[in-house]
């Protein structure tokens, strides 16, 4: 089975040696998204709520480019520099996902690229 690269201009370009996502069969592996505005490649704001919304928009754009939606995500990993933002993440996530929600992990990390406060990656299973 060959892998195919998923790419969209509606999400930030890769800032390293990786692809926005890779599709293998009906499974799509999404690379971590941070709150960069795709058009400027700049962090949207220092405000956590704005950063979280931008990250979910970026994840949504990659899912759509792969032929799915956030509702096709089976597993999501959320990396936060401050776990006290967990409730805010739940509130914002509910705007981008319908039940049943994906499996999820949320962990606090010491730092993220470009000094952002949140990063999200995931695994999506497309309908056959």
UniProtKB/TrEMBL annotation:
One Pfam entry name: Ribonuc_L-PSP
Protein origin, superkingdom: Bacteria
SUPFAM superfamilies: YjgF-like
CDD domains cross-referenced by the UniProt entry: YjgF_YER057c_UK114_family
InterPro entries listed in its UniProt record: RidA, RidA_CS, RutC-like_sf, YjgF/YER057c/UK114
GO CC terms of this entry: cytosol
Spans traversing the lipid bilayer: none
GO molecular function annotations of the record: deaminase activity
NCBIfam families according to UniProt: Rid family detoxifying hydrolase (TIGR00004)
Protein family according to the UniProt entry: Belongs to the RutC family.
UniProt-recorded name of the protein: TdcF protein
Gene name in the database record: tdcF
